[in-house]
Amino acid sequence: MKGMVMTGMTALCLILGIMGAMGNTWLVPDSDEDMEGMDVGAGLTSSWVEMDLADMGATSQSECEEFADEMTEEGGDAECDGTVMTMTMSFSDGCDDGDDESCDMATGGMIGTIGMWAGIVCALLITLTMALPMAGVDAMDAVPEMATKVATWGAGALMLVGMLGWYMMLPDGGDMALGMSGWMAGAAMSMGLGSALIGQFIEADE
Hints:
Shape: elongated
Number of strands: 6
Distance between the termini: 8 Å
Largest sheet: 4 strands, antiparallel
Number of domains: 2
Strand content: 5-15%
Order of helices and strands: HEEEHEEHHHEH
Number of helices: 6
């Protein structure tokens, strides 16, 4: 039972970690006021704005694309789906243009990305190490026990370090709150640390 619980938790750590790391809603507006007609948010490496240009008179995707080209002349990327335009702005590009807040966000995003993906690799290793023997596959038997122990704690701990590093680099006084991707990353981190704690402190027959 202990092994099944730990396997399930590390698998959830892996899945939620991937969804969190690849998500683009680490930050969302703290309030929906004054956001009529558009959605905004930020991932680890970029921010984005989505708006329906039909409200501005666009009637086709070609008109949306013309407007997008005008909007991105000075940087950023934009895509149109019908009259809905999604504009993405990289923090690293903003840093290159001399924006100090973008530099902080780019640094935080790099720390968060490294921490999350390093934790995901550890979670994958542990999940395979635990799940494959249950299916009668001994492919992971060659993995040293010390590497398994390090990876067991590393899955959650590295995600925690990445999230803390990202959070500490956020600019002060912002009006953004933690979004779904950030909550998924937090849940993944909790699952990873929870699995390690169970393995360390709970006996197999309990």
